[in-house]
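so the lab meeting is tmrw and i was supposed to have these ready like two days ago... anyway. pasting both below. for each one the top line is the aa sequence and the line under it is the structure tokens. i havent really looked at them closely yet so no promises
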Amino acid sequence: MNLESRAQSMGMADFIFRVVVPEEEEREVKNGKEKIKMDKTFPGYVLVEMVMTDQAWYIVRNTPGVTGFIGSHGQGSKPTPLLPDEVDLILKRLGMSSRHEDLDVDEGDTVKIVDGAFSGLEGKITEVDHEKMKLKVNIDMFGRETSTELNFDQVDPVV
């Protein structure tokens, strides 16, 4: 994405963290074949997680293809940020976590589940997806090893 590459090249990666195009998988059947396509949830909109400094705001609003902002009154005025509950709802619909920091764990590490149906259990990590902030964790359920997918914000590392 153009904004992400501009943030990297202009040394603003510490201020412009995440750029998300809200889209969901949609399954459709054509000619008897199932096809998966990505459907934009909010066509024409991009969510940007950033620290609103003057320099970061300048980079975002002057990115080619960016035409306007929700909550901005024009003439370069800074937009009003979305409420945390709104961000959480949108990101959960997209299967993403709103947790800001990256979880410092690797495959084979043990984590304690702190949220969700398996809260209180510990498990061993089998897969880490840093981009989607998700983990696959094997837990012991009724004497059998069971794999579950969790968001980074649902676990704490066991030291």
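ok protien two:
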Amino acid sequence: MDYQDLNIWSKRAADWARDYHLNLRNQPVRAQTKIGDTAAKLPPIAPENPEPMEQIFADFEAMVPGATTHWQHPRFFAYFPANASPASMLAEQLANAIAGQAMLWETAPAANEIEAVMINWLRDALGLPDTFTGTIHDSATTTTLSAILTMRERALAWRGNKQGLSALPRIRLYASGETHSSIDKSARIAGIGQENLVKIPTDNTHAMRIDALEAAILADRQAGYMPAGVIACVGGTSIGASDNIKETIEIAHKHGLTVHVDAAWAGSAMICPEFRHLWAGIENADSIVFNPHKWLGAQFDCAIQFLRNPKDQINTLGSRPTYLTTLDQDDVVNYNEWTVPLGRRFRALKLWFTLRAYGLSGLRQRIRNHVAWAQMACDAIAKIPGVQITTPPALSLFTFRLNESDAQTETLLRRINKDGRIYLTQTRHKGAFVIRMQVGQFDCTLDDVMMAPKVIAELVKTAK
């Protein structure tokens, strides 16, 4: 395949993409395949000789779409969305064509400088002060790992990177049980250890208890441990819980700890001023993550980290050997020094295209619609006999269950997803198995959202 072939097949792929998205409503949301079905259709070894693109493309059409869970389906109400607006997809095509490696300013000046401007655009759009700067990571998990590594090194005066952790004080981190599992994973990867991530009890609003947080910090210091940081959440994955950001930061800073705020999903909603009460006090956070790929239409992967003082993270993650220096430009910003990977994709391009193609006003209207429609769906589901709303909408996320038992609720979820018209997921809340519904797919309509109570009502009725 050469570049002339690329021209031909790119047009074919664009036609396929258009038809794929226009016809998604006619497809079941979740893949209706069994484990191993797709692998069984592939040859056990790679081809020795080139194969014609006609056959390759035909095999793709025959094998992939039917074995795909359609994240861009307008009735995808599971997890949080991984949106891909048309403008974002176009930008990704161009970034893929350029195929640059944006590890240094010198290797990708446009990518570097557009990234800096997009950080400022989004900072202002979310109502953050101009004291914040930031960078783009692949996902919130990597962002949180970067923040936790920085907490570790700051607490240890940057001795951990040089000496290792074995002879140094035992680091402690603090978060509530409503935070995402990526915090647990980051604590393990950072060498801090799962046992040193202290889960603070929550109050009746599911926020981390401030008194319990301070008590834990004081107790750990008394025991000879080294408290390093607090990870707070805004819009937790399970039920959408949010910590009291202002008071959490005040207590953490009082005791010399840094604060990373995980707003991976809910952060996008802060482009709407009426939702900013959910993170009141955010201006004093040390690090914040939100994912434009979750609710702003930027194609996965695209996580933004805002930093109040990037020097600590650069001191933790940065490395500038001779072969990575830019001659005669000692003060240049190289974003690889702010992140874990050296290699970096041109992620800022899809932000530039998306923000311009839809405008903040268009993106705000989508989010406001999703929040309002989630409330309407929740109200309708609450009227179904035998169904109980277990947590009311937090923005566009709510949970429910059947009154009878966990087993029957789980059976209902299996039937919903096997039916195919909508896709939901589960969590546990107060020990009970509950079903999550989150509205946020870029192209969903009110009719799509209200399909959920219709399907649930039908399946609950036929189960009796």
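from a quick look at the 2nd one: The longest strand covers residues 226-233. The chain is about 40% helix and 15% strand. will dig more after coffe
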